[in-house]
Amino acid sequence: MDRLWIDNAKDSPEAVVLIMAGGSGTRFWPLSRTQRPKQFLPLAAGGATLIQATARRFSGLRRKHTVVVVTAASQARLVAEQLPQASILAEPEPKNTAPCLAYAARLILERFGDVPVVAVPADHLIEQDDKLVEVFDSALDLADQDAILATIGIAPTGPETGFGYIKAGAVGKAGARAVEQFVEKPDRATAEEYLRSGNYLWNAGMFIWRPSVFLQAVKATLPELFPIVDKVGKEVINAERAGEVASQFKQITPISVDHGVMEKADNVVVFPGSGFSWSDVGSWDAWSEIASTRAGGPANVVGDNAFAVDSNGCMVSSEGGPLVALVGVEDLIVVSTKDAVLVCKKGDSQQVKKVIDLLRERGKTDLV
Amino acid sequence: MDRLWIDNAKDSPEAVVLIMAGGSGTRFWPLSRTQRPKQFLPLAAGGATLIQATARRFSGLRRKHTVVVVTAASQARLVAEQLPQASILAEPEPKNTAPCLAYAARLILERFGDVPVVAVPADHLIEQDDKLVEVFDSALDLADQDAILATIGIAPTGPETGFGYIKAGAVGKAGARAVEQFVEKPDRATAEEYLRSGNYLWNAGMFIWRPSVFLQAVKATLPELFPIVDKVGKEVINAERAGEVASQFKQITPISVDHGVMEKADNVVVFPGSGFSWSDVGSWDAWSEIASTRAGGPANVVGDNAFAVDSNGCMVSSEGGPLVALVGVEDLIVVSTKDAVLVCKKGDSQQVKKVIDLLRERGKTDLV
Known about the structure:
By secondary structure, chain A is an alpha/beta fold. The first copy, chain A, contains eleven helices and 17 strands. Chain A starts with a strand and ends in a 7-residue tail after the last helix.
């Protein structure tokens, strides 16, 4: 693309919903491919893609808002197809979340002014999310008023070892709690301790702030990054400057917003969230559990384009691919697409990355 | 097709190889379909289809021969594609093997004279078949000379309950033995008894006779059938008579050559055959065992368009379909085609017929 900023915003909003859709990855191979990662797959209820469900989530927000999707330049076309009404900010290359959010903050400040922003990943699956939207409402109001960096912490429902945690401290305004510490993925024993303590929340990578407040924190914590994003976040509005933005981007050192900013800033608060189901759907196994729960039990989940004979506990994804017939099998994940079929034992879907390695080794890069 | 007889024979042969390719069936679904049954699938070594391997088998025959394929009218085009040099005799509708062989015998008598015929099914898989061709040579010589109905009996290699047996008696000319009895598929105990006795052979449905001798037997055993085939077998040579042949065919009562002729005739002999591998490849499981043996062991058999990660004992057929990746699975049969994928537990492939039933129930007849 020549343009890095596609402006579909209508009038001055009271908030910006910033959807981070830069993720790549092939953990949902063969449905996901390098150029079509998880956020663009129809894994949400009713056949919506994750990014569509993410945008839709905010329809109940109290503030009049506009949606901006920040994504890889190579994925801008997919975003435009799936969310035709969103504005799109493209990154010339991926530099992890701190540069991404700072780049977007500067653009938002330039284009929409210092309105509060809620920034969320495009590729999480959240259901029964009314309560979450209420939390966003409160957080946006507080961020509009105070110079805070707010995040959402999800009340753990089990001793998960796959997520980072946030240790929450004293309760402050609007139900927000001080953040005592961001902690890395724990081992099982530690996770159980966290669960018992009641003060640890899952770090879901959802943020609320005013762009000026976030940029101030970037200036303080990532002094090399700040001048670059301060420049490109303004320049990107001008289509003629896309080449310059791209060359500036090359100089950026990748770093996550957690490590780069949140862990160092002293104005961080966390809004505890609960009462909704949340998953980062990190594998076909995670997806299979969700689909099974959604279907109401552990029976086969096979959809319209598949069926099972004498089979149990299987999950099939075959929309758009060949019909799948299961005979006499148990606990399988089967995914059929036009050019590739995965047959995977439940519990082994992390090994799909070995398939990707093999495909690359054999030169079948068109299937990756 | 308008023509029921496609004549590709060059000069007067010393023998006719008659390939019976009228079988239908979907036991190899999704690779086989109603209009593309087993004989047209590439299940033979080197990617040949079963009918191609059947025709090729006779290249070492001592007698100069011509190949005639008798098939369903609806499959004549497939036969012409796969065996462009064979002559094709089409049956307007299937009437089982006695009418089929009598119709073909009358055509052969009319077109080639009373030369000996070897008639074999198109859909069996035979490997290391040099010894079998020698048996055919002997049988053709004897049939040329004597008024016999010869069949091939295969020396059992196990107590198979899936085949009919032939009880062989006294040894006569050229190694042929008298036939004491045709017996139905036995139970396990009986099959073991047969195996011990050494006098029972598998009935492989392969026959050798002169057409005049076979037609004589048909006249004696199936007096209603004889006048019809005597007429249509001549008329079919004339393309203008195809409609008449078809209407005559409607009057024929279906019956197998075993029940209708061989069990009643008194000039039946059996040539014992051994030293080659023979299978009627009745299911994906049977095919899987053959493929596994061919590959030299019980490992995964996956071909070029598939691979296996942490998987054991699986068999994949995916030529022409989407690539298949197996992850963490065991003892599966996976067949991928453009529009349908089968995932079946080894040992359960007889249940594929339930899939066909379900497809029909759901109106997905294009996949049957």
